């Protein structure tokens, strides 16, 4: 197997394309909000959503009717040209690489609105070869369209082969921005027996041992998380590659409580954001993927108590040392990144008083 040398990895893949980034910028992306650019009602709402959500994503793939694929592509071009996105990022999800639409998706979007497009989400990624294909094509199109900064790639993990290859996918290109879980396609590909889009399942459980041998008695059941293994594997692959992991879709729009639980589990495991399919999921994602005031208060206290960052101290009966300081700095750094784009959060975090 031939390998690229590091210097080749950081050379543009087409003459005239912008140089690849050496580090993926930590831009807040708590909610990646999906809209169908061919749906006039949704499209009309996009300009007013700028500034209320970290990422607006024009979806061209699943959930867009086949008859509307061209209208969705053109709708996204029109919206992008007419809208000032400010600090809100503009992403797209292109059609799958084996579809009849994807080539024109990329040619049209990069040459027409490449200067406004931050990230291209690629569905059903099977292995690094899929990323290499998009990587080279993007470079050629950036050169053709005169795009001055590289458009990044986000992969969706929604096939068993993709999950098996997740580390290679994460490391496939300096354009790799992150990876999301695609639980619906992944469930189908794996032949899992859930018909839900993300979330748990009442049948996937562990039951309390019988009390006094009474197996028919009242035994507490603990519902388990179908997605824990995949998310944990994805988080490790992303951390190794220096890119960002995301939950994905939660299809039960009405169950805002369970959505919040799934998002919080993902946040605690290391994910930086999730998808939002309906406007009501944006507020949930923004809240869950922003550290709480209590977390920041504690983290800043530890930072202060640790002084030069070495040794061990006791705070409220608990040991803090170099390693727990690093954990606290994850939260403090995230709070700073979010405060830079979210004035309400900045105000909230600025009012925190640190006790000794
Ligand atoms: C889920 C929906 C079909 C629900 O739509 P609707 O029935 O119209 O909801 P409401 O009546 O509650 O809508 C109220 C108003 O809000 C607008 N609306 C709805 N959704 C959005 C949106 N995403 N962005 C902007 N505006 C939105 C409605 O038009 C109503 O407007 P008005 O009548 O003027 O008041 C719908 O929300 C939807 O289609 N969402 C996106 C679905 C999607 O993108 N799915 C694909 C991603 S998930 C996936 O692909 C699976 C994954 O790949 C995997 O494999 O796991
Ligand atoms: Mg899918």
From TrEMBL:
InterPro entries given in the database record: Aldolase/citrate-lyase_domain, Citrate_lyase_beta/mcl1/mcl2, Pyrv/PenolPyrv_kinase-like_dom, Pyrv_kinase-like_dom_sf
UniProt protein name: Citrate lyase subunit beta
GO MF, one annotated term: lyase activity
Ranges where the HpcH/HpaI aldolase/citrate lyase domain occurs: 31-196
Keyword terms of this UniProt record: Lyase, Magnesium, Metal-binding
The keyword Lyase belongs to this UniProt entry's keyword annotation: yes
Organism the protein comes from: Nocardioides luteus
Top-level division of the source organism's lineage: Bacteria
